[in-house]
Amino acid sequence: MEDDYPEVGELVIIKIKKVFKYGAFAELEEYPDLEGYIPIGEVASRWIKNIHEFISVGQRKVARVYRIDLRKQQIDLSLKRVSESDKKRKMEEVRKNTRAMKLFDVAAKNANVPEEDVIKYIDRIVTKYGDIYSGMVEISEKKEKVFDDLHFPKKLCDELIKIASENMKRPEVKIDYFCYIKIYEPNGVEYIKKLLTEGKGLPKGFKSKITYFGAPKYKISFIGQDYKSVDKTATEFFSQLEKKISKYKHEFSYEQIKK
After folding, report:
1. What does the alpha-carbon distance between residue 146 and residue 219 come to, in Å, rounded to a whole number?
2. Residues whose CB is less than 8 angstroms from the CB of residue 165 and which lie 6 or more positions away in sequence, other chains included
3. Domain 2-81 has CATH 2.40.50.140
4. Which of 19, 42, 123, 183 is most exposed by smallest CB count within 10 Å?
5. Degrees (nearest 5) of the Cα angle 57, 62, 67?
C-alpha cells in the first residue's frame, strides 16, 4: 500500500478539486485515485481572510506532502512550504518526463508493441531508473547495455535506442551558494583559498566553480546531473571544509542562493 503513496516531503503536482472555508481537497496527478487535503494554514505564509483569493477549483499547483496517515488513508499537503525554485524544479521534472513518455510511445508504435504491453515495459524502466526520463537518458548513452535485464523485444530496443540517441541528452544542474569563511591566522586567506582549490576534487560527474567576492565572502557553484545529488555533494563539501578549519579560531556559514 505504501508503494502507491508519495513520500513525506515529496513535491507533487495537484489539481484543486473542492474548496471549503478552512481547506481544500486536491487530486494528486501523479498518483491516480489519490486525493490530498490542504488545511487553510498551509495555503499561504500570511493570514488568510478568504481562501478563495488564493486557490480555486481547477487550478494546477505544486504542493509538498508534509504528513501521511496510512491508517486513515489521509495525505496532508502544503502550498506554503513550496518555494519558487521548488515549483520550477518540479514543473521541469514533469515536462521532461512527459516528453520522454511521448518518445517512448513513438518507439513502441514503430515497433508494433501492443498497447497493453507498453505500460509493462515502462514500469520496468521506471523500476530500474526511477522515472521514464532518466531511463531514456540512459538508453541514449549506454544503448544495448540498458536492456540486459529488462527483457524488451529487440525491435523495441532498436527503436528506443534510435529515438533516445536523437532526442535525449543528460542535463546539467547548477546550484549556487554564498560561503562566508574567515580564519583568524596570519595566512588565513591563503589557507582558505588553498582549501577551496583542494575541494574541487568532487565525485565523478560533478564540477565546481569558485568566485571570489573578496575575503571572507565567496560564491561557490556546484554542477551535476540532478538537483538532489548536487545538493548532497555541496552539503558534504561544506561539512568537510568546516572540519578542516575547526582547529583554528574561525567564522563559517553558507547558504544557497535562491533564484
Report:
1. 38
2. 139, 140, 143
3. yes
4. 123
5. 95
Per-residue pLDDT tens digits for 131-172: 999 999 999 989 999 999 999 999 999 999 999 999 987 777
Buried b (16+ CB within 10 A) or exposed e, 128-138: ebeebbbbbbb
Hey, where are the domains in the chain? 2-81, 85-167, 173-256
CB atoms within 10 A of CB 210: 14
- The verdict on pTM exceeding 0.70 is no
Instruction: Give the closest residue to 145 by CA, choosing from 164, 118, 170, 131.
Output: 164
**What residues are paired with 176 via a beta bridge?**
221
CATH class held by domain 85-167: mainly alpha
3-class secondary structure per residue, the chain: CHHHCCCCCCEEEEEEEEEECCEEEEEECCCCCCEEEEEHHHCCCCCCCCHHHCCCCCCEEEEEEEEEECCCCEEEEECCCCCHHHHHHHHHHHHHHHHHHHHHHHHHHHCCCCHHHHHHHHHHHHHHHCCHHHHHHHHHHHHHHHHCCCCCCHHHHHHHHHHHHHHCCCCCEEEEEEEEEEECCCCHHHHHHHHHHHCCCCCCCCEEEEEECCCCEEEEEEEECCHHHHHHHHHHHHHHHHHHHCCCCEEEEEEECCC
Q: How far apart are CA 215 and CA 208, in angstroms?
A: 19
pLDDT at 200 over 60: no
Beta-carbon contacts of 4 under 8 Å, excluding residues fewer than 6 positions away, are: 31, 34
